[in-house]
């Protein structure tokens, strides 16, 4: 099997070239792949696989039968192209309408990518009065049972594999990060709050000050939570792995800490530096484009918010070893991570999904068990944790509402209607995952102990 590495990037997804110091990842203008069955697939443009008509009649019939069986017990109504209604008899159930039988051929050929591309192509949609996340949530609740066990055994054969250049090695990691986070700072500003925080907020216990947006207050509350777990206080020397747009560094410096924040996104680094300077904290915060494997300094605390998901299954040990090596004896690590159930993670760790293809290339969401085991191998002990999955669903709902409300502004930035449809699906799909409990998010506090990290961290290269 061969597979080209030509995939949509900033320009291809309808957006402008990144501004500032970022460089748009190069891409071959024509997709040229050979699928698992050896069928040559040629089409031009970033939406080639969406626009291409899939012909897989046998698999399509199987997919149609499996979908009909799967929705029988769901709180969902499924309207087939001929008007047949399957699923819940309840009048209040969300309704999904399939407009063409081609959708079944699409998902029969590639389930993990086909559902999302079917939405992009307009082959299915929520019915008027039904919300996209409401339609997807019942499916997410049954995600592990929608595909029969006998069919899962053929998953590695039937599904496409990850492109070779999307691994977690230094070169692949930098390219993966650029393809998402270097799209446009202005794009992210259309739906994020004033803190420019692009991770799950913590609404429980958050109190907005007069005139403050509740989402912004919840994001600041989230940051305080992970800083507390890392023991960050006045005089602390702090390493942040994954800068975002600088909010955590600003809050840590506001406590009197000195912060070294690293990122692989040139666009994020540029805006984070501007925000730090505007806050008057330039003497306490250093923002640098740098890989976590290149850190040689030592710190009292390391913090990392939702960066581990981009590390990749094969590099989790190196990541935790690098954290351990960066900590002084008795230092602490504050980690926020999206998680999925362990068995689901193991089953899907080789899968190349719609999210990989269109949103986040590379990487894998870990399980709590995987985090515990990799941390222990590095000599880190978890001694505090909090769960915030419901808050993340709320965060995503707020982001999607703002993104849709800002559609005209997004379009003015150069991101076309197809790009916006992709991102609406991404935000709704993610919200459904958290609402269903298929995804979760945790904050962990980890202790480095009193040993010598330099002696224990041989894997941090």
TrEMBL record:
Listed CDD domains: AdoMet_MTases (cd02440)
Biased composition (Low complexity): 14-25
Region called Disordered, residue ranges: 1-54
InterPro entries the UniProt entry points to: CFA/CMAS, SAM-dependent_MTases_sf
Gene3D superfamilies: Vaccinia Virus protein VP39
Name by which UniProt lists this protein: Cyclopropane-fatty-acyl-phospholipid synthase
Protein's organism: Ornithinicoccus hortensis
């Amino acid at each position: 099997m061969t597979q080209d590495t030509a995939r949509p990037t900033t320009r291809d997804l309808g957006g402008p070239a990144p501004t500032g110091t970022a460089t748009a990842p190069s891409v071959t203008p024509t997709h040229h792949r050979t699928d698992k069955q050896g069928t040559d697939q040629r089409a031009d443009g970033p939406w080639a696989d969406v626009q291409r008509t899939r012909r897989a009649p046998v698999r399509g019939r199987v997919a149609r039968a499996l979908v009909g069986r799967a929705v029988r017990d769901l709180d969902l109504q499924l309207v087939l192209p001929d008007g047949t209604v399957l699923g819940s008899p309840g009048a209040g159930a969300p309704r999904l309408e399939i407009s063409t039988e081609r959708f079944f051929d699409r998902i029969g050929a590639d389930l993990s990518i086909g559902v999302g591309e079917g939405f992009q192509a307009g082959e299915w949609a929520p019915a008027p009065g039904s919300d996209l996340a409401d339609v997807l949530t019942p499916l997410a609740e049954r995600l592990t049972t929608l595909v029969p066990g006998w069919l899962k055994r053929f998953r590695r054969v039937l599904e496409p594999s990850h492109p070779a250049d999307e691994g977690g090695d230094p070169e692949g990691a930098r390219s993966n990060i650029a393809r998402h986070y270097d799209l446009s700072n202005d794009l992210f500003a259309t739906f994020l709050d004033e803190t420019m925080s692009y991770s799950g907020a913590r609404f429980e216990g958050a109190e907005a000050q007069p005139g403050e947006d509740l989402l912004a207050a919840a994001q600041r509350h989230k940051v305080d939570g992970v800083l507390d777990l890392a023991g960050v206080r006045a005089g602390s020397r702090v390493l942040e792995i994954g800068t975002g747009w600088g909010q955590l560094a600003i809050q840590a410096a506001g406590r009197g800490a000195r912060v070294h924040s690293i990122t692989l996104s040139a666009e994020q680094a540029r805006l984070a530096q501007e925000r730090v300077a505007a806050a008057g904290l330039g003497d306490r915060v250093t923002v640098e484009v740098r890989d976590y494997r290149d850190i040689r300094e030592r710190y009292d605390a390391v913090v990392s918010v939702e960066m581990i998901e981009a590390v990749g299954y094969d590099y989790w040990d190196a990541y935790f070893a690098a954290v351990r090596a960066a900590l002084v004896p008795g230092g602490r690590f504050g980690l926020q991570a999206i998680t999925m159930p362990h068995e689901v993670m193991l089953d899907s760790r080789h899968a190349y999904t719609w999210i990989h293809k269109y949103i986040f290339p590379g990487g894998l969401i870990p399980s709590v068990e995987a985090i515990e085991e990799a941390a222990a191998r590095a000599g880190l002990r978890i001694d505090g944790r909090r769960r915030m999955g419901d808050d993340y669903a709320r965060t995503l709902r707020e982001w999607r509402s703002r993104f849709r409300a800002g559609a005209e502004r997004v379009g003015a930035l150069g991101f076309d209607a197809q790009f916006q449809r992709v991102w609406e699906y991404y935000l709704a799909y993610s919200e459904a995952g958290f609402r269903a409990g298929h995804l979760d998010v945790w904050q962990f506090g980890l202790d480095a102990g009193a040993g010598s990290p330099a002696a224990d961290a041989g894997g941090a290269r």
